[in-house]
């Protein structure tokens, strides 16, 4: 039986899944004698705040500031985001910890890849992947690849020199580009490259003292040259074709990166895969789109659901009420969900026209549309720390 099936059969609610995640983090820390920070975003949910940003830096800073352990492991899964936020996080964790390792079992793309490359050690499962390095920039109303943008501009420049003109469409597009905009794009691209060239020799190659084959003493110049070769590969978009391309262990090793294979350690692999599975189940059964957690504390990012729950007793809620709107016809439904086995709650709310939160999380509207309330149940249980009684 796979881990996903195992956990699904247990029928754990979001609160129980979050407790299981923190239990697994504690188990991981004992095995590795380190302090594990989990930072994971749900790549399947199109939410603006899903990307790595400065809010994440402040949360991570707060979680780690009182930690006395000197070995930090970071489980990371992110679509990317702010290079500046990545830089702030990296500078802070290396200032505070003697050794920093990154654990990748899902996707750590773009700015996530930048962060992983700052680790003294990179540990990956067979399912884990990094991605090409590229700054994502805002042009007009669209977010585009800085590399692709500069490639297009250079192509049009060469075309204009060769033909002494551009076609009307391209000429119109080029006319809208300001020198300042071009300079900003170029700087954004160089920023990511410069960080990797600085971080790899300083951190990843810190203990690289002799070459594996010839046993030649490794110089700082050799470390810098290797870093430049790796960066050249990671920004080679003509080779990778896509900003979202997944680069697995073999491809990364072929570039010159040394990767520790988690699957070679059965105990470690079991914990890491369980952490990954539990996080996915939390994402899929609730409106949670981002999790930052240690063995003792967690902060989750939650998207607004169809109906917003309101606690009737904020300190120790016994029941919450909801206003759920059908996305098809707009009809409103008043629901209640209780946390204690109190029949009077049912009587009182049903007299006021409320319906009990459905056991199967399905609300059938009069228009025929079926509303899935699974994410709302997950959000309620996550925010209150209590399980809804069916």
Automatic annotation (TrEMBL):
Superkingdom in the source lineage: Bacteria
GO cellular component, one term: membrane
Protein name (Swiss-Prot/TrEMBL): Peptidase
Organism of derivation: Candidatus Roizmanbacteria bacterium CG11_big_fil_rev_8_21_14_0_20_35_14
Source taxonomy: Bacteria, Candidatus Roizmaniibacteriota
